[in-house]
Specification:
Layout: H1 6-38, H2 42-48, E1 49-57, E2 62-65, H3 66-71, H4 73-80, E3 84-93, E4 96-104, E5 109-119, E6 122-132
Parallel strand pairs: 1-6
Antiparallel strand pairs: 1-2, 3-4, 4-5, 5-6
Helix pairs in contact: 1-2
Length: about 140
Amino acid sequence: MRRFSGRYVLAAVMLLCSIAAASADDGAIIDRWYSALLVADRSELTELLADNARMKLDDIGVIQTKQDFIASIDEWQGAVAGAEIRHRIEKSENGQTTVLACYDFPSNDTLMRETFTVAAGRITASTQTAVAQDCSAY
């Protein structure tokens, strides 16, 4: 039976710790995203998105650039007034985080599954798909 040296074990532990830290950082970025989205904070959203970010809205067949998304914030601000957004991370691995999000607007709610790709502390891609017309499954 082959014995592993302490160096290899230490290297493996350090790698696992760095992967866990990256996932935690991605979770913090996702939390910041939803907080900024709820109040339509243009500055924070701009900071969170990479310059080449792409936002894919599956249900309506639209792909937005960062500039397109930021330009739509004024309209979003009116829509999100009085709303609540609840989210929970379903899984996070290899720079990709899948979130279940309930958008609870004053007149209706909807349940979404959103997948974020995060690199270098910025969101580089997001895909949003409706799961249900209400949040009862949240």
